[in-house]
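Lecture notes, continued. The same structure-token format from the folding unit now serves as the input rather than the output. Read the line below as a description of shape only.
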């Protein structure tokens, strides 16, 4: 007798269920590394002492982590409000025009490749089972997997920013002062490449493209900030 396949194990091979927290975590860590490193490079380029660079880095870490968490919470909460409003509107439409709503479902399934008879039958059975869930999933495109989670996004982003910003701050503490800018620049590129590789691995994507992408933007940010620091330092 042929053994029935383990569906849960098969579905576990996919990574889309990680999209909510992974996006926020990668954004936070990337922003933490680049923001803190760029800030430190800019201040150091202006001729500041190590203590001043550390103070600037700490201020950037605290302000950036809180700002990142608050920004994620507000933006994802706005998405949640939109989803709830659409779900409430859909519930009203199901009460006011159930036949028209069932026809909408059938049309959706026909457009996905089902025959007219099969689409109508599927729409009828799903409507009898749980009409609102069917419309939320298939008409609005809202599922438990991609549903907005404000607290999860805020925590992931804020914590990741803190962890990311901590890395260049440690380099400021332990690097030789005459070489501080160059050590920061080089080590930050290593951190960013590692972040890109880890994020790609967690999402099941090729790592090289992600590593190059984050490194490029890191170089641009640090380079421009260093130029600003050198310019203001020369004017002082």
């Amino acid at each position: 007798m042929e053994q029935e396949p383990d569906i849960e194990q098969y579905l576990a091979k996919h990574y889309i269920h990680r999209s909510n927290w992974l996006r926020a975590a990668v954004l936070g860590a990337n922003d933490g590394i680049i923001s803190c490193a760029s800030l430190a490079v800019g201040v150091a380029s202006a001729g500041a002492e190590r203590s001043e660079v550390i103070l600037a880095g700490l201020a950037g870490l605290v302000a950036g982590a809180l700002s990142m968490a608050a920004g994620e919470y507000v933006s994802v909460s706005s998405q949640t409000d939109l989803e709830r409003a659409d779900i409430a509107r859909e519930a009203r439409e199901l009460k006011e025009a159930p036949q028209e709503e069932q026809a909408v479902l059938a049309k959706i399934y026909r457009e996905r490749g089902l025959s007219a008879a099969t689409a109508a039958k599927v729409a009828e059975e799903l409507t009898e089972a749980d009409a609102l869930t069917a419309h939320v999933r298939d008409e609005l495109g809202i599922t438990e997997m991609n549903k907005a989670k404000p607290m999860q996004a805020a925590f992931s982003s804020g914590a990741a920013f803190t962890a990311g910003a901590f890395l260049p701050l440690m380099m400021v503490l332990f690097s030789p002062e005459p070489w501080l800018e160059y050590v920061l620049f080089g080590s930050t590129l290593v951190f960013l490449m590692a972040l890109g590789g880890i994020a790609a691995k967690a999402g099941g994507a090729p790592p090289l493209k992600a590593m190059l992408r984050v490194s490029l933007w890191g170089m641009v940010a640090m380079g421009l900030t260093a130029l600003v620091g050198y310019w203001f330092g020369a004017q002082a």
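Point for the exam: The chain has a mean pLDDT of 83.
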